[in-house]
Amino acid sequence: MTEPTRISHRIASIAESATLKVDSKAKALQAQGRPVISYAAGEPDFATPSHIVEAASRAVLDPKNYKYTPAVGLPELREAIAAKTLRDSGLEVSAAQVIVTNGGKQAVYQSFATLLDPGDEVLVPTPYWTTYPEAIRLAGGVPVDVFAGSDQNYLVTVEQLEAARTERTKVLLFVSPSNPTGAVYSEEQTKAIGEWAEANGLWVISDEIYQNLTYPSTSSGQAPKAALSIVEAVPALADRTILVNGVAKTYAMTGWRVGWMVGPADAIKGAANLQSHLSSNVSNVSQRAAIEALNGPQDAVEEMRQAFDRRRKTIVAGLNAIDGIVCPTPEGAFYVYPDVTGLLGRSWGGVTPTTSLELADLILDQAEVAVVPGEAFGPSGFLRLSYALGDEPLAEGIARLQKLFAV
Fold it and tell me: Residue ranges of the domains in the chain?
């Protein structure tokens, strides 16, 4: 008789978050005194805006925040999220269609857990954020990669999605702007994909965490509109779409852990039941801070967006100056996703990497720069670099890469 495993096969099959793993290694090396520059974590280097922190400070002193509150979130925050959803996603919802979660990751997991039965397939545009496939598998689903390379600016087509669709397909994952590529679907592309999903009776889970971090594709310098939501492009999809979002990226609030999901009443009811057993309510102090973030002044948001735009231009130009790297210009989020196949199979400092995983190790060892290999997001041959770090370390890191790969 075989000995039973100590932990479940389901949990044992989960891989550690690659982005957090690389970031953790970089921080450990920094703690040892090594001058490592990390492009690994998708975390703004800015402090949370002061008016948000002040709202949290007031909340800490208010005894009403010391007790349990509704598992689905404070009524005032749910109202603020509903207003934001109308403002930025063009979808009118009631507060009852909103659940406040412990960050966007919980919203992602709960969305898949609510919709999927064992064997249901989810179309996942690839490159993808490393958590999506794991969350799908944990919910019993089957992720189906649909790959678009740098030659397509990492944007999948309706034809590709249709080729991947089967009778088991239940959900389309839609992410614009994208993590890890920063790619943003145009209005025409978003509408075409939405109409295809609606015509085929698919659910859509749309991760809109970066919707307010978009950049002009020209030199106009004017702030662009938030990325077009798939439910604004195709209103008929609203009854089969869950929107996932949060305050982490737009407001530099990654550590506050406030996200949300918005969707049809039946899906939200099911997810609310799950959350009532899983985590109950998000920290009330964090929720009070999120209310201020959504309802308060937005000046700091624009200042951060402009800084990201400046850094975006710097890192794209710097990477494209390296022979062997092709880096499309992202139009959203704060990542670049260069194609580095031109560096593979060549000798650098006596090492000849054949995969982007090996290349990332070489870069860390020889240039003391931390990047995330493409294997974390799909096929090998790519790297993800976040430009949500200060201007000086960003420039220094690029200079190190240019020196390492000088021909």
Answer: 9-47+300-404, 50-295
